[in-house]
């Protein structure tokens, strides 16, 4: 695998969340985030913690647990931790890396900029939240 610079929008090629984003928007996303790598088994988000950031999965997969019970697997293109930033509450779930992962971390203020500056990103995040709420209602 070739290493790509963190400011090269090609690092987001193939990530479903960024499908149809032009290069300049992907470059801006990279400017608002910090590339992060985690090892398999790492706790990315711990239920009950205060939310200071959220993560977009670029590569790898993670398990989501609610009160210790497995509820879902998430992979490339999924965002985790955004709900706590949006509703200003403690983390509602624990997220654990199943595989080594590459993530983009967004601090609260940068996440808000992403939502304000990129309607397409905002729409996708809200659609993902709605899908999660719908799945939770069905359970």
Keywords:
139 residues, alpha+beta, 4-stranded antiparallel β-sheet, 8 strands, disordered N terminus
CATH architecture: Sandwich
DSSP strand tally = 8
Radius of gyration of CA atoms, rounded to a whole number: 14 Å
Q: Main sheet, how many strands, which sense, barrel?
A: 4 strands, antiparallel
The CATH homologous superfamily is termed Jelly Rolls
Please list the strands of the largest sheet in the order they lie side by side. Answer: 1-8-3-6
The helix tally amounts to: 4
Could you report the average pLDDT, rounded to the nearest whole number? 87
What is the highest CATH level, the class? Answer: Mainly Beta
Residue share in β-strands: 25-35%
Structural class: alpha+beta
Shape: globular
Order of helices and strands: HEEEEEEHEEHH
- Do you know the CATH topology? Jelly Rolls
Q: How many domains make up the 3D coordinates? A: 1
Distance between the termini: 40 Å
Helix content: 25-40%
Poorly predicted tracts of residues? 1-5
């Amino acid at each position: 695998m070739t290493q790509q610079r963190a400011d090269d929008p090609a690092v987001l090629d193939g990530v479903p969340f960024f499908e149809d984003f032009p290069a300049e928007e992907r470059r801006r996303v990279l400017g608002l985030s910090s590339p992060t790598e985690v090892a398999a088994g790492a706790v990315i988000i711990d239920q009950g913690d205060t939310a200071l950031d959220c993560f977009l999965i670029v590569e790898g997969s993670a398990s989501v647990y609610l009160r210790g019970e497995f509820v879902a697997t998430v992979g490339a293109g999924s965002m985790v931790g955004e709900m706590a930033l949006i509703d200003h509450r403690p983390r509602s779930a624990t997220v654990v890396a199943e595989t080594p992962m590459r993530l983009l971390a967004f601090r609260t203020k940068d996440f808000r900029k992403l939502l304000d500056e990129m309607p397409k990103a905002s729409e996708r995040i809200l659609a993902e939240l709605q899908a999660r709420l719908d799945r939770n209602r069905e359970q």
